[in-house]
Amino acid sequence: MKKIFALIMAIVIMFGVSELKAQKTMSNPQTFGGQLVFALPTGNLGDIVGMGVGINLQYTYYVSPKFAAYGALGYHSYMAKEYEVNGTAYGFEYTASVIPISAGAFYQVGQWGKLLPIVGGELGMHIGNYSVSSSNNPYLGADASYSDLALSFFSGVLYPINRQIAMRSDLKYTLSSNLGNLSLNVGIMYKM
User: Fold this and answer.
1) If 0-12 CB within 10 Å is exposed, 13-18 middle and 19+ buried, where does residue 161 land?
2) Burial, 31: exposed, middle or buried (Cβ in 10 Å; 0-12, 13-18, 19+)?
3) Helix, strand or coil for residue 5?
4) Comparing C-alpha atoms, which of 7, 182, 179 is closest to residue 105?
5) Where is 127: in which H helix or E strand?
6) Which of 120, 121, 99 is nearest to 54 (CA)?
7) Which residues contact 13 (CB under 8 A, 6 or more apart)?
8) What is the DSSP-derived secondary structure letter of residue 23?
9) Which of 62, 72, 56, 35 is nearest to 192 (CA)?
10) DSSP 12
11) Per-residue pLDDT tens for 40-85?
């Protein structure tokens, strides 16, 4: 994991140093926004919880007109799903929720003002909770919490509506030992 983090940092430094002069020409290199998240779970809990919905808040700083670093904080809730083996239901339902905290970077093709394809990645921490309950016996049930590292890769588009507001949509795959996911993220970014 240290090698992956070192590689990401090297890429950030490489793009940042090579285009540091461009920062002076940008009127304001910061954006703030949020995205709605629709996620299909993978990983250990992916077999026992349903689709997830959530929100991510994001602060972005453009190191250059084409390269940005950001931090994000969110909350995702995964719907209940009944536990089955070979089509036989056992009366147990699992739910899960996650607070993802991450830092990442993306590269956009083109300048602000046009449809901009983006590609990037992020490294973060998932702080989560899952619970199991029984429909047959209300006294049976358990809760557990966990935290683990998560690595995400995404590609999508930024569509500037005007000089200050852009829509952002991306498809992201997150690797995590407990609850990874494939998610569609759609939201608005405001250029401060």
Assistant:
1) exposed
2) buried
3) helix
4) 7
5) strand 116-134
6) 99
7) none
8) H
9) 62
10) H
11) 988 777 777 889 999 999 999 999 888 999 999 999 999 887 766 6
Q: Are 75 and 97 in contact (CB under 8 A)?
A: yes
Residue type, 161: I
Per-residue three-class SS string for 69-122 = EEEEEEEEEEEEEEEEECCEEEEEEEEEEEEEEEEEEEEECCCECECEEEEEEE
Backbone angles phi, psi at 84, to 5 degrees: -135, 145
Task: Return the structure tokens found at 133.
Answer: 């309950």
d(CA 17, CA 134): 56
The predicted model scores a pTM of 0.76
- The DSSP output letter for 28 is -
Contacts (Cβ under 8 Å, ≥6 apart) of 72:
56, 57, 58, 59, 100, 101, 102, 103, 104, 122, 124
- Please write the tens of the pLDDT for every residue from 92-143: 788 889 999 999 999 988 766 678 899 999 999 999 888 877 766 666 667 7
pLDDT for position 23: 40
Contacts with 41 (C-beta within 8 Å, 6 or more apart), sequence order: 49, 50, 51, 52, 78, 96, 179, 180, 181
Indicate whether 9 pLDDT > 60.
Answer: no
